[in-house]
Amino acid sequence: MNWILLFHAVSLISVTEGVVLNYTDPLFAVIVMHVLGEKASIFKLGLAGIAFVGAAVVIKPLDLGGGPGALATLASGFFYGLLIAAYKLSIRSVKPARLVLYQSAIASTALMTPSGG
Fold first, then answer.
1. CA distance 75 to 83
2. Over the chain (117 residues), what is each successive 10-residue block's mean pLDDT?
């Protein structure tokens, strides 16, 4: 899902803005893991805060220059952050190579569906 949103977003905003906003995924991963009970250090929370400020600078919330493209890219970062958190939780019971195989198989199957145009 994150790749679909990212590719859609860069059709609406510049690639530079899209890539910068997409790299908010660690911010979302830290937040998700914190909500799930993992203690985040002050250092990690500080870095998450810096990432948030950086995203806000790119989006320019008072100007809303990015609009739907910026929101789609942030959603892409959010979904990739969820994937990172899922990997971290799953790695306790599934080997990393198997996780990559599962993700690739699911993504390939999903992307092979007809797009309708």
1. 12
2. 80 82 84 86 85 77 66 87 87 88 84 63
